[in-house]
């Protein structure tokens, strides 16, 4: 699964304290076509936000109540300045819903 699979959750887990649901986006795309990449990322994030809003996670964790939600974007490549701005805007919009976006650059075996 990857950022291209907008209707699938790439990974899901719970924080150690049990209060936060963590959703993983696996982003293997480079930034050679930044606009298209941002559209793919936006579509994937919108799908995840819908997953949270619709409480679809209750199918996996039926007896859990979460106070926080985090969408972790694991990227194979360093994020562009425009991507970071985009994520900052989204974080501001989602703050009152206790949803945050975090980014992690994973080299996935790259030197």
From TrEMBL:
InterPro entries: DUF6572
UniProt-recorded name of the protein: Uncharacterized protein
């Amino acid at each position: 699964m990857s950022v291209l699979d907008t209707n699938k959750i790439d990974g899901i887990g719970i924080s150690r304290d049990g209060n936060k649901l963590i959703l993983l986006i696996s982003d293997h795309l480079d930034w050679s076509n930044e606009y298209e990449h941002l559209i793919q990322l936006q579509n994937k994030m919108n799908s995840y936000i819908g997953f949270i809003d619709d409480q679809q996670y209750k199918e996996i964790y039926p007896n859990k109540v979460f106070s926080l939600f985090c969408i972790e974007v694991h990227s194979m490549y360093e994020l562009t300045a425009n991507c970071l701005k985009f994520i900052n805007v989204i974080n501001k919009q989602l703050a009152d819903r206790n949803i945050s976006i975090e980014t992690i650059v994973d080299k996935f075996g790259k030197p």
